[in-house]
Amino acid sequence: MHPLAPLICATLPGAVCALAHYVPWRHWFRDGMLPRLWAYAVGLLAVLVPATIAAWLAALTVPDVLGLLWLAAGSAGAGTLVPWQVDADKRRELQRAREADAAEVYGDDE
Fold first, then answer.
1. Whole-number percent of the chain with pLDDT over 70
2. In the predicted model, is pLDDT for residue 108 greater than 70?
3. Could you tell me if 110 and 47 are in contact, meaning their C-beta atoms sit under 8 angstroms apart?
4. Is the pLDDT of residue 89 over 90?
5. What is the C-alpha to C-alpha distance for residues 79 and 42, in angstroms, rounded to an integer?
6. 75 in Cβ contact with 14 (< 8 Å)
7. For 44-59, what is each residue's pLDDT tens digit?
8. Contact in structure between 73 and 48 (CB atoms under 8 Å)
9. Backbone dihedral region of 47: left (phi > 0), alpha (psi from -120 to 50 degrees) or beta?
């Protein structure tokens, strides 16, 4: 198998999913979010397109194809979970800052 095939499957799906998380969808959709069905389609294509191209051009055996597919799926999963975790951490940090500000302004009643 060509050495670039696993590299493509390990990076491209995750990058597409992470970038799709931070695209300003509010400019194109009325409710400001990418519709759920479109989000699933983008995620599925982010996995299948690189895996298909890599498998078609570089895979020699069925285990190679399956490995590339699972590598692409894992990459897309990580590219989805990491931005969610970053957002959750930022939300928690903002909430702690708000609570600290409120305790400073209104006094700590606890």
1. 97
2. no
3. no
4. yes
5. 12
6. yes
7. 998 999 999 888 888 8
8. no
9. alpha
Cβ neighbours of residue 50 under 8 Å, at least 6 residues apart?
8, 9, 12, 13, 72
Cα 36 versus chain centre, distance: 14
| Structure token pair of residue 39 | 């989000």
Query: 72 is written with which tokens?
Result: 């692409």
Distant-in-sequence, close-in-space partners of 21: CB < 8 Å, separation ≥ 6: 79, 80, 83, 84
As given in the structure block, the two tokens for residue 24 are 């300003």
- Please state the three-class secondary structure of the chain as a single string: CCCHHHHHHHHHHHHHHHHHHHCCHHHCCCCCCCCHHHHHHHHHHHHHHHHHHHHHHHCCCHHHHHHHHHHHHHHHHHHHHHHHHHHHHHHHHHHHHHHHHHHHHHCCCC
